[in-house]
Amino acid sequence: MLKVEDLNVFYGDIQVLHEVSIEVREGEIVAILGVNAAGKTTLLNTIAGLTKKWNGTMTWMGQPLHRVPAFRRVEMGIVLVPEGRQLFPFMTVLENLELGAYSKAARREKERSLEFVFQLLPKLYERRHQLAGSLSGGEQQMVAIGRGLMAKPKLLMLDEPTLGLAPKIVHDVFQLIQDIRKSGVTILLVEQNMHQSLQVADRGYVLENGRVTISGSSEALLRNPTIREAYLGI
Amino acid sequence: DQSTGPSSSPEKKDPIKIGAIFPLSGSLALLGTESFEAADLARKIVNEQGGVNGRPVEFIKADAPDATAAANEANRLISKEGVKLIIGTYASGLALAAAPVAERNGVVYYELIASSDKLNQQGFRYVFRVNDNSTKLGTAAVDFVEEALAPRLQIEPEKLKLAVIFEDGAFGTAAAEIVKSRALQSGINLVAYENYKATSVDLSSLVLKLKEVNPDVIIAASYVNDAVLFQKQAKQYDLNPKAFIGITAGYGLPDLAENLGKDANGIFVVEAPAMVNPEALTEEARKLDEEFRKRWQEMKGRDPAGHAYRAFSGTYALLTQILPNAASVEDSEAIREALLKADIPEGSLPNGWGIKFLPEIDPNAGLNERSFAAIQQWQDEKLVMVWPEKLATAEIKDVPLPPWKDRNK
Amino acid sequence: MVLLQLTVSGILLGGIYALIAVGLTLIFGVMRIVNFTHGDLVMLGMYLTYLLYKGFGLDPYISLFIVPLALFLIGVLIQKLVVQRVVGRPHEVQIFATVGLSMMLSNAVLAYFKGDYRSVQTTYSTDTIQIGPVFLGVPQIVAFGISAVITLVLFLFLKFTYTGKAIRATTQNRISATLMGIDVRRVYTMTFAIGSALAGIAAVLLMPLYPTYPSIGEAYLLIAFVVVVLGGLGSIPGALVGALIIGVVETVSAYYLGSGWKQAAYFVIFILVLIMRPQGLFGQRGAEQL
Amino acid sequence: MLKKGGFVLSAGLVVLLMVALIYQIKNKYYLDILFMTFFWASLAAAWNISGGYAGQFSLGHAAYVGIGAYSTALLYINFHVSPWIGMVVGGLFSALLALFIGVITVKVRGPFYTLITIAVAELLYISAIQLKELTHGSEGVSLPFKPGWVNMTFRERETYVVLALLFVALIYFITKTMERRRIGYYLIAIRENEDAARALGVPVKEMKLLATVLSAFLTAVGGAIYAMYIMFIEPDSVLSFAFSIQPALMSIIGGLGTSLGPLIGSFVLSPLDMFLRESFSHINGLNLLIYGFLLVLFVLFWPEGLWPNAVRVYRKWRSGGVETKS
Amino acid sequence: MVALKLKVERLTKRFGGLTAVRDVSFEVRDQEILGIIGPNGAGKTTLFHLISGFERPDAGRVFLEGQDITGKSPEAISRLGLTRTFQLVKPFGKMTVLENVCVGAFLRRSDLTDARAVAEDVVELVGLKPFADQPAATLPIGHRKRLELARALATEPKILLLDEVMGGLTPAEIGQMIDTIRRLREGGLTIVIIEHHMRAIMSLSDRVVVMHQGEKIAEGTPKEIAQDSRVIEAYFGGELRFA
Ligand SMILES: Nc1ncnc2c1ncn2[C@@H]1O[C@H](COP(=O)(O)OP(=O)(O)OP(=O)(O)O)[C@@H](O)[C@H]1O
Ligand SMILES: Nc1ncnc2c1ncn2[C@@H]1O[C@H](COP(=O)(O)OP(=O)(O)OP(=O)(O)O)[C@@H](O)[C@H]1O
Ligand SMILES: CC(C)C[C@H](N)C(=O)O
Ligand SMILES: [Mg+2]
Ligand SMILES: [Mg+2]
């Protein structure tokens, strides 16, 4: 479905990703793991079309993504829920969600998607007329995820979706991720919560200093001694 | 100070360089440019006639959109171009900034148009003004009210209600102040004295205020934009003075009729004389006047207005009757001597002026006592001379001014 | 009695300010591009109206269908060449890019038209309707009416259409807007162009009333900023109400304090409002800090 | 300590060298250009203290220029107060106004602050025109030419140029000193994020006020020097928008919030402005058209300013082409 | 009495119709680590705003070492020795990491050399040394959180309020962070910490305050809290989980 090969990404003159190759197959949950500053966000942003300076190949369903601007990728089904929420602070929760369904295909399904999101995240229904900017940190995170779902993604990329969420919600989110997958959406997940991520993911890649150093099935990764020591702290 | 230019013994054919400072950009660009063009036309005609003592004249043009630039440009002309004589600047604010620079450098400054009295009242030795100042303009306005309008309106000057409105810049303020003090001297009833910004986009309140006091005569010192705006709004709100007098600038420009059409008719303008009765001119001046009108028509497609006459006449006289008498045109002291020596009778310049500069001991040192203002009137969308009689080419009409609903019928 | 006339005159004048301010509120208020060329866009529109009138004898009210279109295209051009490159940059960078642009526009016109004052003369330029003791200028009434309609349409557009929401979303977070599938560049271009077209409409409606000259933009720019901030950034009804207030303040203070002081009156009000209610009369609290 | 002494010493040497150079220039026109360049540089550097470092983006500094120029001129012609004293009085008046603006705008940020400063400057401009008894209105104030140290009036233009140079040097020195001290760090922190600064104990209000007041004082002194040089002031010059916008412009083009940026900005823009006016004014407005065009280019291509860009290019060149990640 | 560092008395804060914090009281003793937990939107961050002076409470008082600091400005409170971090990080983007931290250090050091010395130590302590000269705007989220901590530490506070500084860290990094915070306490600091990360809260805190819908619903040792049925219901969603 998504294939990234030999990807190099730069910020100005600084290279942040080095020859990264990953693949996501339809219906999978793939986890990207790594310490702070490893380049996880950069990878997702590049797939979403947000970084300017990169080379390598990226293909989506066999089609090259080279010349496709970010907003088109959304219509193609590549949707990113960005790090740090990035809501529209002076719009209500409802308006934020509606904007999630901006692309044409999603717009048609808007009402149904809304219902689905409110069912999944009832707290948002309670707060639907509040300005997004005045929500608590965790509530904002929920809006961000909900907004991503509104776009009817084929591939949903989640950048640290549980950051700042209470344990109860964290659990719900991981549950949600599995539910989303069941509804036919492929998921690319960046998480610091490695244990739980690897429990829901099928496969994983470990990024270190901008390079993929380890990859494999979740079980393999969970057994990998390096990972156990360096990342899980066991 | 000895500068870069060709020094010791100038060749006969070397051009004489004169600095010319005018506002060519910014909000004063319209009149500034036209004034420069009129001065430049005089220069061209002089050069065609063989120049000054056989040497062609060259203007070094300098743009001064604001006072700082005026001072900087005066500095440049003097220090870099080495000029000994600067002409300009059309606007009082610029003249007041440029003249001191010339004075301090011992270079002659010769003003053609700017009106602020202050220019001649600072004890400068090298600063001359050939044109009419605010006092002359304001006095002419009030004289005209007293001598020509009051009788025609059959109102005693003491009973006459006068309103003065003026743009709040240096020009408007200075002119209005003179009108005010002259009017008070004559016992005229000053019922309103109001200033406003020339760039205003609305003057309805001013119109309404005037309507309240219902003046017989309104005297206005305005630029074009505000003059047009005021007249349009006066019509809308049906403000009907018995006479309306504009003081030079906006009211004296062809642009007024271009923008107002027939609605301009009947308005008086206190202006430097323009297109005067040829009878009032010397033979020579008459010929020159014809030439000027013709060439200006060719250039601009319209008749020259008062300020164009100021610039043309002043420049032409300078080049033909003053500089040739200077012991050296490369020496400002000699030019100054020649200016002070000049004694040209009235009627010798194409607008009827003569030249005689007040001496250094006079409080208005350097002011030309033979320049004066006259009254024109808009008739059939053209400006014609109506007062004083000697210069007049047409009769005074439309006194009292018909109310708007009856105008242009 | 005078007060009644002054108020009516002020409201009509405010209608004209509103037209200029509504365009600016879209560009500055909604998109947060500090646009110092807005006055010059009005100036360009006025010259275009003048040219159409001089060259083809077109009545300004017919130009109403042409000039805004032309301004729309000019807006697209300005956006693509300059503004797009300063979007998201600090305000000071935007201010100076547009200040430079403004110098270019007004001086290009100066170089071409030589600073002469130009106006069109229509039969209705000075027409008035008299209701009791109150005079109402006909062109002013037309301008006011169109301004009210435009304000309403624009308000509904921003509030309820998807495009309108996309515009607001883009202001609040460009990256997220992109991630929603919004073509951010196009949104900016559209907004700037619509704002410019509105300046064009204002210009056409001004032309029967006021002469134009190259530096006239300055006169309108500051008023427009005052109105936009007073009404509340990005608030369309705010722009209308703010303009009416400024219009009335202007006529009333000009009458009682003298025309020379009238601007002082609205600057004082402007400062007071900003201090006591930084979000403006209709603005979203805190939104002014975006 | 030694480093600081070294800085003062080398700066002093540079100034001395420049003074010596000034006396080598024979053509007065170049002295005029030089004066204007130093003058604008001083206004830009003064503006930069509040506008660049503290992020208080004022476009109303003309108010301070005007107060400085008018106080000096009016005290001088009405009461024969020496401009050296008038200048300080003007500075204090400006500082007071700045204090007032600062107090009323504590909660106002971003473009709103900018608009308020514009409005205040406009108010002053209107007042200067209307309060004729005090200011002589639009006719302006002409200063008498009475050379002498006490009168701050000189026959030789060199003296003015040296005066302006010393003034620029003083402001540069103040800025440079600030940069290495707490206040410099605090001002930048405030500009970047007020809330975070407050959480770290930065007295935001006081720091902003300090910067604005200092900036206003210095700007007024600059206005006084201008008045004594041109010898004629009017509302349309010293209180015009140009006097607000140029210093800001120069700081931005040179590099906002850097000590050298405003000076570089002025050294590029002032001569450029005068050169364009000299060379291109045969077509009305062409010089300003080009000036505007160049401004747009500068802002589009070097938005951080010339100085920061130069530094970056230099660093890159020194590190052999590509910056490497540590 | 001296042992009492911070005392919060019946704090209440309303936003329009919503009461974000209702009648909350608690105390923090010298060199204690107090954990605050609660579901999203419980009012934890608001509580920090109230204590640190960023919001004015509608009712209630705050005492720092016995001194009433209610309504004082954030900068004054910080000067008195209480510093907080922001959950939504606020770096000085254009300054380098070290310069960011210097701003904090300047609170107690007036000389640049001294301030830098403090800043360098702190930067090293939180593990940002390799990034010291990088502009803060280019830091990824995890590092920004550390920067928040570093800046706060540089003010040499007596009491530190940490709002979710562990978000975005890997489990291994969290381990390091726990060590760091412990060491800080041993160095004499009193700490109030908001965190959703249960392992961190449970192993660090001496006592835990639990908030729910603006109210304090429980207070006690981690053990007591972990067994409180209301807490489990509100926070853990019916079953206890340690991430
Ligand atoms: N705009 C930028 N300019 C320069 N460097 C950047 C920029 N954004 C990120 N970086 C650098 O790129 C590297 C990777 O950052 P990235 O945000 O991808 O990390 P991450 O793995 O997502 O970390 P985290 O877990 O903290 O979110 C970091 O060293 C960061 O400093
Ligand atoms: N300025 C405000 N205006 C309106 N409501 C607000 C405002 N600030 C906070 N709130 C509301 O107050 C409640 C408490 O918010 P707070 O940020 O304190 O929660 P929190 O406990 O820190 O949550 P989280 O764990 O998600 O960060 C939330 O419901 C939030 O929406
Ligand atoms: C129009 C001129 C006669 C007067 C000119 N505007 C001045 O400022 O003096
Ligand atoms: Mg990341
Ligand atoms: Mg919180």
From TrEMBL, chain A:
<dbReference type="InterPro" id="IPR052156">
    <property type="entry name" value="BCAA_Transport_ATP-bd_LivF"/>
</dbReference>
<keyword id="KW-0813">Transport</keyword>
<keyword id="KW-0067">ATP-binding</keyword>
<keyword id="KW-0029">Amino-acid transport</keyword>
<dbReference type="InterPro" id="IPR017871">
    <property type="entry name" value="ABC_transporter-like_CS"/>
</dbReference>
<dbReference type="GO" id="GO:0005524">
    <property type="term" value="F:ATP binding"/>
</dbReference>
<dbReference type="InterPro" id="IPR003439">
    <property type="entry name" value="ABC_transporter-like_ATP-bd"/>
</dbReference>
<dbReference type="GO" id="GO:0016887">
    <property type="term" value="F:ATP hydrolysis activity"/>
</dbReference>
<dbReference type="InterPro" id="IPR027417">
    <property type="entry name" value="P-loop_NTPase"/>
</dbReference>
<protein>
    <submittedName>
        <fullName>ABC transporter ATP-binding protein</fullName>
    </submittedName>
</protein>
<dbReference type="InterPro" id="IPR003593">
    <property type="entry name" value="AAA+_ATPase"/>
</dbReference>
<dbReference type="Pfam" id="PF00005">
    <property type="entry name" value="ABC_tran"/>
</dbReference>
TrEMBL record, chain C:
<dbReference type="InterPro" id="IPR001851">
    <property type="entry name" value="ABC_transp_permease"/>
</dbReference>
<dbReference type="GO" id="GO:0006865">
    <property type="term" value="P:amino acid transport"/>
</dbReference>
<keyword id="KW-0029">Amino-acid transport</keyword>
<feature type="transmembrane region" description="Helical">
    <location>
        <begin position="6"/>
        <end position="28"/>
    </location>
</feature>
<dbReference type="Pfam" id="PF02653">
    <property type="entry name" value="BPD_transp_2"/>
</dbReference>
<keyword id="KW-0813">Transport</keyword>
<keyword id="KW-0812">Transmembrane</keyword>
<keyword id="KW-0472">Membrane</keyword>
<dbReference type="InterPro" id="IPR052157">
    <property type="entry name" value="BCAA_transport_permease"/>
</dbReference>
<protein>
    <submittedName>
        <fullName>Branched-chain amino acid ABC transporter permease</fullName>
    </submittedName>
</protein>
<feature type="transmembrane region" description="Helical">
    <location>
        <begin position="133"/>
        <end position="158"/>
    </location>
</feature>
<feature type="transmembrane region" description="Helical">
    <location>
        <begin position="62"/>
        <end position="83"/>
    </location>
</feature>
TrEMBL record, chain D:
<feature type="transmembrane region" description="Helical">
    <location>
        <begin position="284"/>
        <end position="302"/>
    </location>
</feature>
<keyword id="KW-0812">Transmembrane</keyword>
<feature type="transmembrane region" description="Helical">
    <location>
        <begin position="159"/>
        <end position="175"/>
    </location>
</feature>
<feature type="transmembrane region" description="Helical">
    <location>
        <begin position="252"/>
        <end position="272"/>
    </location>
</feature>
<feature type="transmembrane region" description="Helical">
    <location>
        <begin position="209"/>
        <end position="232"/>
    </location>
</feature>
<feature type="transmembrane region" description="Helical">
    <location>
        <begin position="112"/>
        <end position="131"/>
    </location>
</feature>
<protein>
    <recommendedName>
        <fullName>Branched-chain amino acid ABC transporter permease</fullName>
    </recommendedName>
</protein>
<dbReference type="GO" id="GO:0015658">
    <property type="term" value="F:branched-chain amino acid transmembrane transporter activity"/>
</dbReference>
<dbReference type="Pfam" id="PF02653">
    <property type="entry name" value="BPD_transp_2"/>
</dbReference>
<keyword id="KW-1003">Cell membrane</keyword>
<dbReference type="InterPro" id="IPR043428">
    <property type="entry name" value="LivM-like"/>
</dbReference>
<feature type="transmembrane region" description="Helical">
    <location>
        <begin position="29"/>
        <end position="49"/>
    </location>
</feature>
TrEMBL record, chain E:
<feature type="domain" description="ABC transporter">
    <location>
        <begin position="6"/>
        <end position="238"/>
    </location>
</feature>
<keyword id="KW-0067">ATP-binding</keyword>
<keyword id="KW-0547">Nucleotide-binding</keyword>
<dbReference type="InterPro" id="IPR051120">
    <property type="entry name" value="ABC_AA/LPS_Transport"/>
</dbReference>
<protein>
    <submittedName>
        <fullName>ABC transporter ATP-binding protein</fullName>
    </submittedName>
</protein>
<dbReference type="InterPro" id="IPR003593">
    <property type="entry name" value="AAA+_ATPase"/>
</dbReference>
<dbReference type="InterPro" id="IPR027417">
    <property type="entry name" value="P-loop_NTPase"/>
</dbReference>
<dbReference type="InterPro" id="IPR032823">
    <property type="entry name" value="BCA_ABC_TP_C"/>
</dbReference>
<dbReference type="Pfam" id="PF12399">
    <property type="entry name" value="BCA_ABC_TP_C"/>
</dbReference>
<dbReference type="GO" id="GO:0016887">
    <property type="term" value="F:ATP hydrolysis activity"/>
</dbReference>
<dbReference type="GO" id="GO:0005524">
    <property type="term" value="F:ATP binding"/>
</dbReference>
<dbReference type="Pfam" id="PF00005">
    <property type="entry name" value="ABC_tran"/>
</dbReference>
